[in-house]
Amino acid sequence: MNEIKTTRRNFIISSLALGGALVIGTRAQAAVVDAEPWDLANPAGSVEFTPWLTINADGSVIVRATAVDIGNGTLTQIAAYIKEELDPVWDQIKPQYASTNRDYLEENVYSNANVGGALAYFSGRSTGPARMDTYMQVAASARERLKAAAAAAWSVPAGEITITEGVLNHASGKSGGIGEFVQAAAAIQLAEEPKPKDRSEWTFLGKKHPGKVQLPQIVNGSLIYGVDVIVPNMVYAALRQSPVMGGTLKSFDADAVKSMPGVLAVVAVKPGDNVPTDLKPPFPFGVSTAQHAVAVIAEHYWQARTALDALPVEWDDGPGAQWKTTQQMNDAAIAALDKPGEKVEVSTGDFEGVFKAAKKTVEGTYLTPYCEQAPMEPLNGTAMVTPERVDFWHPSQHSQMAYMVAADETGVKPENVFFHQTFVGGGFGRRVFSDDARMVVAVAKHFPGRPVHVIWSREEATRQGRYRPLMAGRLWAALGDDGYPTALQGRVSGGPGFFVSGINDTAITSLLPNVQIESQTVPFHILTGPYRGPGYNSNAFFIETFLDECAVAAGVDPMEYRLQIFGKWADIGWAKCLNEVKAKSGWGEALPKGQGRGVAIANWGMGGKADAGTTVATVAKVEVSKEGVLKIRQIDLAFDTGRIVNEDAVRTELEGGTMFGLNMAVNEGLNIKDGQIVEGNFDEYPMLRMADMPAQINVHFGGLSDNPRFNEIGEPPAGVIGPAVGNAIFAATGKRIRQMPFRTQDMSWS
Amino acid sequence: MAVSLMINGKATEVDADPQTPLLWVLRDHLGMTGTKFGCGIAQCGACTVHIDGVATRSCQFPLEAAEGVKITTIEGLSPDSSHPLQKLWVEFNVPQCGYCQTGMLMAAAALLDEIPNPTDADIDQYVSNICRCGTYTRVRAAIHKAADLMKA
């Protein structure tokens, strides 16, 4: 346990409002979570036990989130931690976002190593075990103080008092709400802080599975996402960035549009126009660099869009224009595999010797294209910049990064930057690097004194992404007499920003005695960034398709082949997951030609270790028409993340991650022409819809190993569904799919 | 140009360019942000409203065409989130990020108005909205359940 040190001094802060917070709410709300849960002051009569936890006089409880809720339920999760230890009434727990400004002023109260982050990490994953300990501890400490306060008032031993549903009770019949005792509890000094409950004592975590706390506001449309922010005196901006990444703005004719209705200004943004700070951001500021851009600012958004479309603009494309076609880039990535990689990622045993002696070898070359995260809420943000102060409302995936970027772009002192974390209409990695945050502030600083709401068009967002990198991979295996691999060699290549995780640190690279994995960077100009399961989402496809090819070469059923290999792995979760999907998916039942099942297994986050990360095994059943039209008939998956604390939250992420990975595999791929991204909107970059999905995704829980961990759950399923479908297509048609997206591949058969 | 609109049973005047999409009239001019911007080309359905009861993608519906029709937005689907679909969306924990869900709900509500007991194929046809989080299986289950409840 990563227990935090709670001293009297830092445990109870005060009953006063947050210092310096600006409270701007645009619409009043009353529900479980506020529709605009940012920078809210502590109510009168409340006690802030720590910056994480405030108890109000009415018995409601404020818990502050450092992790952004991007639909993964982080706000619900932290409420569940508080419920377990303190037991307030469930819908009286009010999650809010922690203030990044306060974190800065109060020496990283939310982001130091003692409270669960090796680094200040405000991103989606930070509700994991380390943060859990922090929340459970502060709730337990508050609980014992409340009990001590009631014990003193009632002249009974504190140990005889219980708290149930927000009420302190004693067998004598005395009872009172927790709100009645908060002031007295604030004065209590405990000899030592209590330990949070043992897992065996949990009554809520792992037992109940509450739906997301913001559901009521989602279904009536009142939840405020970044794009919904309306603040007084606000204007809108429409944005166009250099069509070729890295290009520069040559000229634009503002006079041509300045008399159009509502137009207020035309402004240019360029990289390096910022006022650097000495802040230490969670990611290097370089990942947030602005591209050359022009923006039209107008009273209304449609006026800005219309004027931008009419604005004459000339660009200098720069060196990126050398990449004339997608094929040219694909060829360059694959050509990089022909020679030894510049970097050796893993090298064990005598792989060369084993290959030389091998009677049978298998080779496969694979490719995955650039992909756009395409969150449904287009990139946007609202900023008001003055020389002294920045107010910034933004749907970030990493509020601390966005906060620091705002300071770094404007030169305004960090203590005078107020970042307001809104709800987020999907993230998938796109809103982590905060290039969007920088662009908003960079536009707004050219129009100081009025809040500027910058909204990307869908086309602009799609063509100006920070993409899943284009990657190629080639794998070789030496097979022994029994058909099983004795050595493995792999090379992966990609544009700057590609990852080797998922291939250099997965089970088979640890299991086999003779392995070498190499990598090679290709100098593409296209910018990249995190995309659900970075690296893993390509590499799991490479290695799990390849393993299927090895099974075919060995003449062994692909499921049995994997069970043989991974049955030897120290982490029992792998075999458990395979056995679970084997039993539940109908594996082995005969199918007519044109139908087939495929399996894949991978782990996100293991870092080469057993009993780490999250393992997912997926079986897909597909039907392919003779003309080559693919239909997904059934999906079964089993997973092992050790243990879980909210079954339905886990289920939704496994369903969602599977659908995301399926879309990636079947549909997604950006094309390049003369250095520009071709696709702009969903007519060209298709998304799966209801009609494309089986009626359900069968999530099975029999793979759980009960190893004492719980890990990320949204990313792991995204890597395995693609190879499972690809392997199923092979089973159905005899055609091996080695390149994404599958819809561009010939699947016809006769 | 001032245009008279009837939105959620209330008469409203808007002064904007007649070509302005209804989506932006609602969101920007009227501050009704429950109707979402997703693509702008009637692909994704996040902006779905009812025009005289028919599910319509408001990003491609100009203000000038909105005069004299009855417009219902998510804010008017029910006064208190009591539409069976809204209740089931909560019960089934359908939304993830939730951004597309108001459009989903409006599409599903129009479907049930027209076909009280829809088949899977009906749902496929009427609810063609895009959800990037992948909530489709729950959307489908909630629509079927709502149909059952509304029959009773």
Tally of separate helices of chain B: 5
Q: Report the average pLDDT across residues of chain B.
A: 97
In percent terms, what proportion of residues of chain A is strand? 15-25%
How far apart the termini of chain B lie comes to: 47 Å
How many β strands of chain A by DSSP? 27
Number of strands of chain B: 5
Helix coverage percent of chain A? 25-40%
Mean pLDDT of chain A, as a whole number?
92
Q: DSSP helix count of chain A?
A: 18
Low-confidence stretches of chain A at least 5 residues in length (pLDDT < 50)?
1-10, 13-31, 117-124
The global form of chain A is globular
Give the largest interface pair and sizes.
Answer: A-B, 61 and 61 residues
Q: Which regions of chain B contain 5 or more consecutive residues with pLDDT less than 50?
A: none
Global Rg of chain A: 27 Å
Helix content of chain B: 25-40%
Strand order of the largest sheet of chain A: 10-11-8-18-15-16-17
Strand-residue proportion of chain B: 15-25%
Brief summary:
The complex is a heterodimer of chains A (750) and B (152). Chain A is α+β, with helices and mostly antiparallel strands. Chain A has a seven-stranded mixed beta sheet with strand order 10-11-8-18-15-16-17.
Write a structural description.
The complex is a heterodimer of chains A (750) and B (152). In chain A, helix 2 (74-86) runs parallel beside helix 4. Chain A contains 18 helices and 27 strands. Residues 1-10, 13-31 and 117-124 of chain A have low confidence and may be disordered. In chain A, the strands form seven sheets. Chain A has a seven-stranded mixed sheet. In chain A, strands 13-21-20-19-14 form a five-stranded mixed sheet, sandwiched between helices. With 750 residues, chain A is α+β, with helices and mostly antiparallel strands. In chain A, a hairpin with a 2-residue loop joins strand 5 (162-164) and strand 6. Chain B is an alpha+beta fold and 152 residues long. Chain B contains five helices and five strands. Chain B has helices at 22-29, 84-91, 101-114, 120-126, 136-151, and strands at 2-7, 10-15, 48-51, 54-57, 70-72. In chain B, strands 2-1-5-3-4 form a five-stranded mixed sheet, with helices on both faces. The longest helix of chain B has 16 residues, at 136-151. The model of chain B has no long low-confidence stretch (mean pLDDT 97). At the A-B interface, helix 6, helix 7 and helix 17 of A face helix 1, helix 2, helix 3, helix 4 and helix 5 of B.
